[in-house]
Design a protein that fits this description.
Structural class: alpha+beta
Number of strands: 12
Oligomer: single chain
C-alpha cells in the first residue's frame, strides 16, 4: 500500500469498526412516547380505559314529565317537598295531584320529579295566560273516609299525621252546604269572615310570613273563613303543626295552622263561621293561629280580603 493512501485506509477501518460495535443500529430518532390512554385495549380484553367505562355507563334516570320542566301547569319537586306542600303551593288537593301523576304511594316523590298540577283535560298553556288556577273540587259524601295523609319525602317530618277529632255535629251546620265542584272561572269572590277573634300578632310578609298570626288562648275556636270543603286535616307539613286546609273555589284555599285539635276531616263540607279546630301551639313557640289565604296557590294578604273589625 502506498504510504500516501494510509490515512485514507485507516479512516475507513475506524468507520467500519464503529458500525460493527453498534450492531449495525440505525441512527436513533427521539420521539415522544405514545400516551397510554390512546392505546385501545386488545380485542377480547376485559380491561377498559376510564373514558370507555364512563361512556358505557347508563344515562341518569329520566323523571316522569321531565320534558315539561318549567312549563305552566307543572311543578318540579324540591328537597323536602311533600304532596301536601305541592298541593298547597299550587292551590290543589294533594290527592288530585297524586291521581293526575299516577302516584300510587303518596309518601314517595323524588327530587327533580316533574308533577302535573292541573287536570289532564285542562290546557296548561291557556291557563298560563290568566294564571295557573286550581281544578274543581270533586263532590264527595260527608261520610267518605280519607286515606292516611302522606308524610314528608326527602326530609323527615318529625311528627306523625294527627288523628282528626270528631266532625262538628250536624246541628251546628247550616241546612245548605255549597258544592265547590260547581265553581267555574269567573266565579264570585268568597264571603270572607275572620277565622279567630284574637288580635293580630304579626302581619303578612310574602318573604317571611305568608299569612297572619292571630293570637289567643289554648282551645280558642278556629272558624272556617268561608264556605268550602276540607282537602287536608293532619300534621304532615313541617312548620304548620296540626293543619287544616279548606278549598273554597277554583281560585281560593285557606290554611289554618298550629292547632291544638282538629274538629273536621278531609272531604268534609264546611260553612263560613263553622268551628273547624281549636287554637294551639303545635310547631310554634306560642299559642296562635297562622292563617293563610292562597289565590291560585300564591299567598295573598288576608287583611286585604277579610272584613273590617
Amino acid at each position: 500500500m502506498h504510504l500516501r493512501s494510509l490515512p485514507w485506509y485507516l479512516a475507513c477501518l475506524a468507520t467500519l469498526g464503529g458500525c460493527a460495535s453498534s450492531g449495525h443500529r440505525a441512527p436513533v430518532e427521539e420521539r415522544a412516547p405514545t400516551p397510554r390512554a390512546a392505546v385501545a385495549p386488545a380485542q377480547g380484553s376485559a380491561a377498559a380505559t376510564p373514558a370507555a367505562t364512563a361512556a358505557s355507563a347508563p344515562d341518569p334516570k329520566t323523571m316522569p314529565n321531565a320534558e315539561h320542566a318549567g312549563k305552566p301547569g307543572y311543578y318540579t319537586v324540591k328537597p323536602g317537598d311533600t304532596l301536601i306542600r305541592v298541593g298547597l303551593e299550587n292551590g290543589q288537593n294533594w290527592r288530585d295531584v297524586a291521581r293526575w301523576n299516577g302516584i300510587d304511594n303518596p309518601n314517595v316523590i323524588e327530587v327533580g320529579q316533574v308533577l302535573r298540577v292541573l287536570p289532564p283535560a285542562q290546557d296548561a298553556t291557556a291557563v298560563a295566560s290568566r294564571g295557573v288556577g286550581p281544578a274543581k273540587v270533586e263532590a264527595r259524601g260527608l261520610d267518605a273516609k280519607p286515606a292516611p295523609a302522606p308524610s314528608l319525602s326527602g326530609a323527615a317530618s318529625g311528627s306523625a299525621p294527627a288523628t282528626a277529632a270528631p266532625a262538628a255535629s250536624a246541628a251546628s251546620m247550616p241546612a245548605s252546604v255549597p258544592n265547590p265542584a260547581t265553581a267555574r272561572e269567573g266565579e264570585e269572590e268568597p264571603q270572607w269572615a275572620w277565622p279567630a277573634a284574637g288580635a293580630v300578632g304579626s302581619g303578612f310578609d310574602e318573604g317571611r310570613n305568608k299569612g297572619l298570626a292571630i293570637l289567643g288562648k289554648t282551645g280558642d275556636p278556629v272558624l272556617a273563613a268561608a264556605d268550602g270543603r276540607v282537602v287536608y286535616a293532619g300534621s304532615g307539613l313541617r312548620g304548620y303543626g296540626n293543619l287544616v286546609i279548606v278549598k273554597h273555589s277554583n281560585t281560593y284555599l285557606t290554611a289554618y295552622a298550629h292547632n291544638q285539635a282538629l274538629l273536621v276531616k278531609e272531604d268534609q263540607a264546611v260553612r263560613r263561621g263553622q268551628r273547624i279546630a281549636e287554637m294551639g301551639s303545635t310547631d310554634a313557640d306560642r299559642v296562635q293561629l297562622h292563617f293563610e289565604i292562597r289565590k291560585h296557590g300564591k299567598p295573598v294578604d288576608p287583611a286585604r280580603l277579610l272584613p273590617p273589625r
